[in-house]
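User: Can you predict the 3D structure of Amidase? Sequence below.
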Amino acid sequence: MTREFNRRVFLARSASVAAGTAAAAALPATAFASPAAGGPDAGAASLAGGKKVTVPDVDVRPEARQDPTEATVAEAVTLLRHRKLSAVELVEAHLRRIATFDSVYQAFNAVTADAAREQARAADRHPGGVLSGIPLCVKDNYYTAGVVTTANSFIFENFVPPYDATSVARLKAAGGIVVGKGQMGPLATTRATTPNGTVTTVNAWTPGDPSVDPGGSSTGPACSVAGRMACSSIGTQTGGSIVLPSNQQNLTGLKPTMGRTSVYGVIPLSYTRDHSGPLARDALDAAIMLSVLAGPDQNDPRTLGLPAVPDLVTSALPVRRGKKVVLRRATTIGVPPDYLTGVGADVLALRHGFLDQLASIPGAKIVNVGYPDDWGLLTDTFNNVRLSERTEPFLPYLRQDPKLFGVSLLSWLQGLFLSGDEWITGQRAKNHLLRELLDGVMSGCDVLLQTGPVPFDILGLPELALPIGFAPVGSDPKVPVGTILGGAPYEEDRLLEVAAAYQAVTSWHTERPADPVVAAPLSRAAVTGPPRLTPEQAAATSA
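Assistant: Sure. Here are the predicted structure tokens for Amidase:
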């Protein structure tokens, strides 16, 4: 499939998604109909559009052999396959960490321990799909049948879905075991807090200091993996909510192209920008998870009629020529003008080191690229229209009681004041921005380094976050630093190839944080930092 064909499909789909926004955004209060025939339940058995997902044996690190919570998904699959580990042992090890440390991390707002144990016993008796026996965390805006799904809000605090979201159904069909629901920003807007703004989930690397940003809004799913309470997790992204917590907590997060994964059964934030994707420990785990999640779903029209899902697992396996790691395909990596500016000396040194390491891998070519003069104007103009899109389906709740929105109320009120002509102007800016990016900025490169999630996330293009080192933040000497790679439409495989090669010659992604001091929550009053977000802070940092 050619890049030009992918581009045409993406541009056409992007326009149709914008046109269908009003008709497609449904809220749980009115969405109790059963899934369509061939929807989540039927489609779950057809992983990755009918392709069977297989994971080869990998070398298992000594740390993972000694403690299964250290293992990547691929390492755990290898140990389970060769009966060096049982599903019960793997799940129990993670549940013990949840019981011991989640009072500090506050990564979960629901733990499904009994169901997880039962499923682990079944997996040992009858191993199933590629994720058989693997403990996973699911962000709390995904429908989970019979398990409360709150989106961390007053609006849905008692909502118990009658069925699983497509992504959850596919993980379960592949044998994955959900150990709990990950805490998140209220209605997927900020870092994880209570609905009234009190900070909850911390960065797993700085559990005693809640002022250190853990990334949002998929804060809990990220912390659950970084804190070794789940092998992997799924989050959602509308404005950086997969890549940012991954960068902040030393994970590899992959936000796919719009439509590559279904968001059916996800409490919406923005229909044209919501994405489902994995937060994982390395590129191979991200590829395994996305391979399970990806593929058409009749309940989500954005997933239909797209280019076929490539072999993501193979793309995430490093290629060696002799003893030297090489890129699977020659790849040109674009460096924008702001990549080496506007950051402190420690982060700047890590970015230089990252570029030097990439440049040393045969097949990688580093080039400088430029932004058009109207880049900032276009990104800001289009980004603003997200506010009206999120407000429209929630109007009944705004009329009922604005206090239901808690600390995130301002961003919903802001959406009320955008006029129709502003929305149209924003859509024009989006079309212009897409062409500037695809035909201009990326005309000379295959992937583009980014200083933040914009514009790839708001345009629906794929991006991957990966760790590149550590730097001090305040009194914390070792806080993760990551970077973000953006790609062309439906080219998640290209992003994985670059990440896999880099991770094959570095070890940042294998580092895990020290266990927290369990008494840490008792001393939080003595810690400087924001114990509670104000409405203004929530609006300023909103996705």
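Residues 34 and 163 are 8 Å apart (CA to CA). Confidence is low (pLDDT under 50) at residues 29-33, 37-49, 520-528.
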